[in-house]
Amino acid sequence: MKSFPDLDNCCQDVLAEQLNHWSLANGLVMYPPNFETYSTCAAPVTLYPTPFPKTSFVKALDVQDSFNELYAKVSSDVDWLSSVMDELIALDKDFTGKLWNIYLKAEKIGLCQPILLGLVRSDYMIDSDSMIKQIEFNAISVSFCGLSPKVSNLHKFLNKSGYYTSSGSEYYNDESELPSTESADKMADGLAEAAKLYNSQEHTSDSLVLFVVQPKERNVFDQRAIEYSLLSNHDIKSKRIVFNEIQNYVKVDPLSKKLFYMPTNEEVSVVYYRSGYGPNDYPTETEWESRLILETSKAIKCPTLLFQLSGAKKIQQLLTNKVLIEKYLSNEKIEKITDTFVNIYPLDSSEEGIKGQTLAFQSPQNYVLKPQREGGGNNIYKDDIPGFLKKLSKDQWNAYILMDLIHPPTYKNTIIRNAKLYNEDVVSELGIFGTIIWNSETKKIISNKAADYLLRSKFSSSNEGGVAAGFGCVDSLYLFQ
Amino acid sequence: MKSFPDLDNCCQDVLAEQLNHWSLANGLVMYPPNFETYSTCAAPVTLYPTPFPKTSFVKALDVQDSFNELYAKVSSDVDWLSSVMDELIALDKDFTGKLWNIYLKAEKIGLCQPILLGLVRSDYMIDSDSMIKQIEFNAISVSFCGLSPKVSNLHKFLNKSGYYTSSGSEYYNDESELPSTESADKMADGLAEAAKLYNSQEHTSDSLVLFVVQPKERNVFDQRAIEYSLLSNHDIKSKRIVFNEIQNYVKVDPLSKKLFYMPTNEEVSVVYYRSGYGPNDYPTETEWESRLILETSKAIKCPTLLFQLSGAKKIQQLLTNKVLIEKYLSNEKIEKITDTFVNIYPLDSSEEGIKGQTLAFQSPQNYVLKPQREGGGNNIYKDDIPGFLKKLSKDQWNAYILMDLIHPPTYKNTIIRNAKLYNEDVVSELGIFGTIIWNSETKKIISNKAADYLLRSKFSSSNEGGVAAGFGCVDSLYLFQ
């Protein structure tokens, strides 16, 4: 591995200006808090690509289609989901419980679209022995596939321009060490494939993809990259609706169950959620009703309620059981997948749960405590765990799982936010995007692909990694042997 | 011609949000006043492409290489330039005079690079009879070749997405009516061709293009588009230096006269001026010295002092004389060129000058009064002309020329600035970019091309059209038969 390009302050300032200009000229941007629609800021990124073992990267790409397949199959194993759902609902009544409830209602009304689309991301960290270890599998509303290619192109530009060397005239990285990521195009390809499948099923040609989004989304440019790719590469139009305004903008034909976007009376082929993944997206009953309306329409959902539910942390914990996944995957795939697992313990009264409780108090420094819900941002780390658990009543412990803490290598890098440079050690999390189209009736895979990568880095001193939340930033890979 | 897409307020608001997102996601941006490096704004543009007669557009593209040739040849007819320069200097001692002075000094020291590169733009308005009439020929530092393709792509996107029709699902324009402009790439091609010529002359391979820029440039993203194209399409690196810091960053080898960028010790193949075109760029003697240093180096200049001087308005006025340009061009080319001329009068004591003086007071409503200097922004229109001239002493009149005012058609459009929409009639100015490489020793053209277009529009009620100055905006063409 090459040594870190330790530039002096002057070279770093030149580099930072180059970086800001490139970001703003190429849409590597994010709205600041309290933004005006016409003005934006460069997204927080690292100045340099971060080292990552090539073999680990190849492994992460290689296992993606197995994870896609696993979660697609789990999502249509309704019997099994039902059997564990009682437990999940008991743990997280207000959100997981309501999601399941809406599913049951939808099922009663009638689900008329067997095809589901998953646009997913599996997140990993490198453990001390260069093994990739899965942090989580995200089954809904995964972000940064739009910005990730731009960060990679930014770093390639800076490298090619010579700004990474103090001589200013040489490459720091060989171009072969900086893998491309076409995640925006590949995720758009997934949407396009589903839309075309719908069109051919329904004998229509001019449908659109509906992006269901959050109000005042700051990360809108990440989503827009997918929309622009859809239109330019596939001639497929998209519309955006804020989740809580859905019912003002769509209607379902009562006979055909087709979904229409009312302002233009266009048919919706795919409903793509970039909202609806956490309880905050459902402030009133209206949003739950909206979800039900969309779920029971003929449009292909990305994802369905069951696919979203399959991404729950509790399910992830249950799926670490090899016996369980033998139902779904071939041995070869199971081996690949289980290689990426860390130990996950419940905190309930089961044998495993008792073990988890003991470990949480005996050696909390080896663990992270995670809530069952999607979304992140509420993890409890190491020595904070015992105090946190003590404040809860014991029957509340069930809402959390205890996971082996991964000890990723740290590397020197520099994070730039609002033109301020932070020279610190960082740790990185690799995300592999994936797309899967699955027929839940015939239980057949129609399409199953890895869709390139995301790298996020954060100060090694900080525990949380959410980019939008202000703790981390988007990065790209420098692969070493 | 299609009728104007008169959308209601609600549709226009949706359109404006689409537009702002696209602009910020694709670098169609400009720094606001008092900017921070990491934050920018959508550039002022029209919501819709503006109608323009297709035959007029074709004519403007067709005549470009003749104009390129004419000005290249004028710039190396030193005898003729000398013969008229006395007159120019008398008119504009402080700027044109000093430019010429520096040229004379440079000539004495020795000019060692016969090749010149012109990146130019010829600006036109449509007159009442759909004829294109030249407003001016810009021989230095022409702007907006970087942003123009983005505006065109923005309008194509909005059209293709259906946002121009109130039904929201149809195209307003056929795609064939919206011509593409690749002006950023084509201007970069010009720089690249000159750089490669230099490299082969000097048996070097790793030279760079030096962008000489203004401090705190708000329109930097326009320039960056050229730089990014240079690197990605031609593997040619560029560096930017603020004009008044040149001497801290470059040195000339006293023997070879080669120019070097000191921080990286790289050889400079082409000096590209995006500064140095007006007196404000030369606040001290240092800038004049810098210009001399660059002019006498071996780097190819874009443009040379003589090429810049050839773009003076006075020269433009003299070149309306058919007899004069017979020296330079074939009859066929002369005819094409003179078709685009309007009457231009001096205000001196010559026969033509007396006529100009009379017209300025008798029928000022038909004229615009322009200073001889490059840069624009100081024109006097119509009935303001007599009062303006009266305030000057008569010997100062010489510093201006009087031009036929063109009466362009007005079209409905909407200008968007900082999310505010202005529904007004606009008038438009078409710019055709061009690139020429010329050997002033052998008097041979090495390369001569048109490089696509720019359309700028302004309220028909406003006289000035500078986009950066806040009066106008960047637009794109809707060609009609």
Keywords:
alpha+beta, globular, seven-stranded antiparallel beta sheet, 481 residues, homodimer, six-stranded mixed beta sheet, 15 helices
Describe the 3D structure:
Two copies of one chain form a homodimer. Chain A has 481 residues and is of the alpha+beta class. The N and C termini of chain A lie close together (8 Å). Chain A contains 15 helices and 21 strands. Helices cover 37% and strands 26% of the residues of chain A. In chain A, α2 (54-75) packs across α13 and α3 packs antiparallel against α4 (93-109). Chain A binds chain B through residues 16-17, 20-27, 29, 32, 36-42, 157, 160-162, 167-169, 206, 220-221, 224-225, 228, 231, 235, 237, 263-266, 418-419, and chain B through 16-17, 20-27, 29, 32, 36-42, 157, 160-162, 167-169, 206, 220-221, 224-225, 228, 231, 235, 237, 263-266, 418-419.
Summarize the structure.
Two copies of one chain form a homodimer. Chain A is α+β, with helices and mostly antiparallel strands and 481 residues long. Chain A has helices at 9-25, 54-75, 78-91, 93-109, 148-160, 183-202, 220-234, 246-249, 285-295, 305-310, 313-318, 322-325, 331-338, 351-362, 384-391, and strands at 29-30, 39-42, 45-46, 50-53, 115-126, 132-138, 208-213, 237-242, 250-252, 259-261, 266-273, 300-302, 344-346, 367-371, 380-381, 400-404, 411-417, 420-439, 444-459, 472-475, 477-480.
